[in-house]
Amino acid sequence: MLNNQPAPVLLYRAATDRAVAVVEAVGPDQLGRPTPCSEWSVQQLIDHLVGGADYLLAAATGVEPGPSAGALGTDYRDRVDRVLAALDSPGALERVCVSPLGFDWPVSDAVAGTFMDVLIHTWDLARATGQDERLDVGLVEACVAMFLPEMPRRGREAGIIGPEVEVGEGASAQDRLLAAMGRAP
Q1: pTM of the entire structure?
Q2: Which of these, 116, 180, 168, 104, lies nearest to 143 by C-alpha position?
Q3: Which DSSP string do the residues of 13-30 spell out, in sequence order?
Q4: Secondary structure of 36-63 in HEC code, one letter for each residue
Q5: 21-79: per-residue pLDDT in tens?
Q6: CA 41 distance to own-chain centroid
Q7: Where are the strands (E) in 71-114, listed by range?
Q8: Of 58, 76, 90, 115, which shows the fewest CB atoms inside 10 Å?
Q9: pLDDT (0 to 100) of residue 54
Q10: Cβ(147)–Cβ(38) under 8 Å?
């Protein structure tokens, strides 16, 4: 994490504010639609977002989450609220958990990684459901500074991120981030 970046919890809070709004705007008739995540439908992507919140909640509290299949927008809002409350607990950010890539890391780094995941998947969900795809410029810039180019490379090696997409020299920070994460902006 770079020292001049905002605290991971603040980034996560800001990213999830928008993600919750996008999730809650999804109509029941849109749940089966495909997303830029080729293996996931809109419903599966919502379940993934809920699962990410459950992961952070378990990391911060030590309590294992229940299943998240078939989650609704209100489920995601509830989980995010619970995560943010748990992260405010003394010592929560210093706990250690296992990353999605299989190594131990502090919860503070897990929050930062989940911020990135939420930001990218907010775009995926907005694109799949015809919502506004613009991401907050400050959040995108923080994510680029924190994670590019190292994280996408490691994610590709682990098979969880698709091939990088080429973008032109004048591409926006959002387009560069999305392309690094395997999305065609």
Answers
A1: 0.92
A2: 116
A3: HHHHHHHHHHHHT--GGG
A4: CCCCCEHHHHHHHHHHHHHHHHHHHHCC
A5: 999 999 999 999 999 998 899 999 999 999 999 999 999 998 887 666 777 778 999 99
A6: 16
A7: 96-98, 104-106
A8: 90
A9: 95
A10: no
